[in-house]
Here is the input.
Amino acid sequence: MNPTACILVIGNEILSGRTQDVNVQYIARRLAEMGISLREVRIIPDIRPVIVSAVTEARAAYDHVFTTGGIGPTHDDITSSCVADAFGVPWAPHPETFELLEKHFAPGEFNAARQRMATLPVGATPIRNPVSIAPGFTMGNVHVMAGVPRIMRAMFEEIAPTLRCGKPVTSRSWHAFGLYEGGLAEKLEKIQDRHPDVDIGSYPFHDHDGHGGVALVSKGLDADEVAQVAQDIRQMIEKLGFTPIEGEPAHKA
Here is the structure.
């Protein structure tokens, strides 16, 4: 089986609706490409017991845990110290990171708040940050990254070559205008029953002109079986009297 993963999105700003999360989509797509099965995503607040509990549970249940958010210099950036608590180790200045950030800031600007970003769980390995210097870190199977999307993406790509991967997921899709889920559910279920190892998803859409339909996506580890399912779906669409279009619609909602 492919390695498994969980994403912990940490931040009150996500739960309040103030900030829209875009990191999950990026990580999920990259994990699929790398053959790592994303099994769970949690969005949790900046509350110490909640973060410690979530990290503790996730690292025991999955091969990889990715966290985003809460590693900046302010009082509510508590992810790093919470990970230390979850592993039962001290949270202490990391000498190499401390030196790196001290050299980065102008004299007098590396204040106590910024020094928090150089404080890591003892035993953690920094994740290089080519965008804004202050690193994330890996502790065991937990990879702690920034919440700012461009920084998170840079950090993820830094650790990607080090991750234990599996067989990449293959995906094929069709969509049809004017076809809706109620008209295909029974036939689609029969295809799914014949291919239990392939994940078949049905996604209604409407384009910008108000025209709607359904997109049907098949995903799995066996490329030949995924191709067979895609062929079955195409034939099903045609038999229902609609025109199958390969790929997903350009504009969907």
